From TrEMBL, chain A:
Part of the binding-protein-dependent transport system for phosphate; probably responsible for the translocation of the substrate across the membrane. Residues 88-292 form the ABC transmembrane type-1 domain. GO terms for biological process: phosphate ion transmembrane transport. Coiled coil: none annotated. Keywords: Cell membrane, Membrane, Phosphate transport, Transmembrane, Transmembrane helix, Transport. This is Phosphate transport system permease protein PstA. It comes from Micromonospora radicis. The chain crosses the membrane at residues 36-57, 87-113, 125-149, 155-174, 203-224, 274-295. The lineage of its organism: Bacteria, Bacillati, Actinomycetota, Actinomycetes, Micromonosporales. InterPro entries: MetI-like, MetI-like_sf, Phosphate_PstA, Phosphate_transprt_permease. NCBIfam families: 3a0107s02c. Belongs to the binding-protein-dependent transport system permease family. CysTW subfamily. SUPFAM superfamilies: MetI-like (SSF161098). Signal peptide: none annotated.
From TrEMBL, chain B:
The keyword Transmembrane does not apply. GO terms for cellular component: membrane. This is Phosphate ABC transporter ATP-binding protein. It comes from Micromonospora radicis. Residues 34-273 form the ABC transporter domain. One of its GO terms (molecular function) is ATP binding. SUPFAM superfamilies: P-loop containing nucleoside triphosphate hydrolases. Keywords: ATP-binding, Hydrolase, Nucleotide-binding, Translocase, Transport. It is an enzyme of class 3 (hydrolase). It comes from the Bacteria. GO terms for biological process: phosphate ion transmembrane transport. Residues 1-26 are annotated as: Disordered. Residues 1-12 have a biased composition (Polar residues).
Amino acid sequence: MTVTAAPATRPTADRPDLTRAALSGRRRFTNRLATAAIWGAVLLAVVPLALVTYTVVSKGAGVMSPSFLTEDIPNSYRRVGGGMAPAIIGTLLITGAAALMAIPLGVFGAIYLNEYGKQRPLARLIRLMADVMTGVPSIVMGLFIYIAWVRLVGQFTGFAGALALACLMLPVVIRSSEEMLRLVPEELRQASMALGARKWKTTLTVVLPAAISGITSGSLLAVARAAGETAPIIIVTGIAFSPNWNLFDGSNTALPAQIFRNASTSFPAAQDRAWGAALTLIVIVLGFTIIARFISSRFAIKER
Amino acid sequence: MASNDTDLTTRPSVAVHAPGSTAAGAETTTAPVMQLRDVSVYYGSYEAVRGTSMPIQQNQVTAMIGPSGCGKSTVLRALNRMNDPIPGARVSGDVLYHGQDLYARDVDPIQVRRRIGMVFQKPNPFPKSIYDNVAYGLRINGIKGRLDDHVEAALTQAALWDEVKDKLRKSALALSGGQQQRLCIARTIAVKPEVILMDEPCSALDPIATAKIEDLMFELTNDYTIVIVTHNMQQAARVSHYTAFFTAEVDDKQVRHGRLVEFSQTGKLFTNPADKRTEDYITGRFG
């Protein structure tokens, strides 16, 4: 009663003042403060990113040339010129092999966790172990592979690096894929089930396609992260100055390891090569990210 | 619009069928497709629905009505073993389909669901094209060749073909809610089940879309047996031949259970209910 009566008793003839000036001073002040704080936070986040990009591009562009991408690494740090071809090849091979191992395993693991294991003790244990593995420092993973694989086969290999990177990627792929599978609405599984589909069929034909874009981008981001890992590469792949296309025989190298080695010398020529390698690595990682974006928009569920 | 015309002509005929004294009613006194015998559904140790016995007659619409939490959806889902994946869900009593207990040890739930389909409360098309939505059930059931014909037939039967025939490759998610629900019905009938279970199929739809689905249900009774759960008593009165009224009751241990109060032909249940609780509910004194 009182609710309906109130508008009638209010003086309705006045035109309500809808301008911003009609707000109280305190509210206008709070608004300005919040806006300023948000802009400040954006700037703070963008400034380091822009500076890193600017520094790497300006210092790396000097040595960047077709020969830098195709020539061998000089045996002596002091020597001017040479290139990073062995490290580029090593990075692509090692990261690629790691992705081939970690992504299928991780996606299958995520399917087990979300579609089959759910809250069973085994699934909870795997989830816990994956979380613990995410927190393992990459150098520890490198040492683990050194003991478990390098010592066993008796030599540094690119494959050992791939194993270490795969171990680092695996928990990330599992957890991000599981998260994506969790987002698939339960109604879709029910609809498929009500049509007489078996569980594996539902998973393969309904759940996985609905989650594939998220799984792809999550996996490729894990690949991009692994491509930048330095410590395990230094520990388990050894060093190479000419391209080694064989992952299973002989030492190899990768861009992050070369950045580390060249940057930590006092020779300007080596430092230039480190900047060039850094630029190359950033471009490669950017490439992965763009591919991830492209694939996820390609597979994204279209509304129209 | 054409659909409005059929609207007006089909509805009274449902009402005529419903009292059951007519020839149409007499024809259906054959053996029921499904028969529930003292069915109780448990979630863990909690008995959600207690002792339900009722028949599901062939080529008829059977409605389940009752207040929220009375277990009507639970019973519906028990009819094609949709409760199976819920941890702790269990059924006692017999759910007979052509005399076979659906919960017998050697019964494959997949086989059950291929014959007893389901349409859900919220339209849930797959995030695929309209065509692939309808073809999905055919593909997983290994029906090869002439898929186009099957898809067209199902969409036509679901009264959706004319609206979508030019955009079969477009995403099903671009359709309106009512169209999506008819697509879900088309998807269900494409695999030619014998029984279609509908769990409040119109509760997310506007009145016009609801009217279309109701017309469609009437058409579908030529080929299918329909069981519908609805919150809407008018809807039950309009579309169904038989109605089961459920309610929630509290036993002496203060535990709530869903109970089937009354099952009879729709006309009788709404005009001359045998139970006081049914009368209170349909006259709006309760629930």
